[in-house]
């Protein structure tokens, strides 16, 4: 079964950029195989069997188990352990070695998943803040192509959101305006006036398309 599961799953990138997609798909597949309670930590633990003087007992019970009762409880334990191992192995096979070292050895599959999520939340915050700083500092070089700058900006945006970070529309618009440079100031003023007159919010998507169109027109003028 694990071979089929692994085929369906994305692996978590070393740069952690696909964490949100990875987390959703891994959890979905684990649940589809009936292992969701082991992932979420609400599965009932089998009663513990202990041995004393050659007899087997359930912990807290002074009556010795019959052979059939012993086999029944041990089969339940084996089934529980197998499902726990399946969830762990799905996680282990699809994360970078550096993360495997950090999460292995936890008491349960749920604890393994919980630790992975905790590590990723901390790492994602640090990394997304760094990416957002890069977005704010990105500029089109002199004589550079603004469309290439916009493409870089969009990649940074997708990387932030892919790791679970959030970017407000206003932040994204500000990043676009800064990245385009002085030659697009008149365009931005025109778009702002149009937005006020029509009472229509200026979106990042519309702004990007307007800049690209302006760049095409500037290219055409240079060829005249």
Structural notes for this entry:
With 224 residues, the protein is mainly alpha-helical. It folds into 2 domains: 2-121, no CATH class; 138-223, no CATH class. It is built from 10 helices and 2 strands, in the order αααββααααααα. A two-stranded antiparallel sheet has the order 1-2. Helix 6 (109-137) packs antiparallel against helix 7 (146-162) and helix 7 (146-162) runs antiparallel to helix 8. The longest helix is centred in the middle third of the chain and has 29 residues, at 109-137.
What is the domain tally?
Answer: 2
Distance from N terminus to C terminus (CA atoms, Å) equals 65 Å
Strand content: under 5%
What is the helix content?
A: 55-70%
Cross-sheet strand order for the largest sheet: 1-2
Shape: rod-shaped
Mean pLDDT: 91
SS-based class: mainly alpha
- Rg over CA atoms, rounded to whole Å, is 28 Å
Number of separate strands: 2
Can you tell me the residue ranges where pLDDT is under 50 for at least 5 consecutive residues?
none
Pfam families: Retrotran_gag_2 (PF14223)
Topology overview:
Layout: H1 2-8, H2 19-32, H3 36-40, E1 49-52, E2 55-58, H4 67-93, H5 97-103, H6 109-137, H7 146-162, H8 169-180, H9 185-198, H10 204-223
Antiparallel strand pairs: 1-2
Helix pairs in contact: 6-7, 7-8, 8-10
Brief account:
The protein is mainly alpha-helical and 224 residues long. It has two domains: 2-121, no CATH class; 138-223, no CATH class.
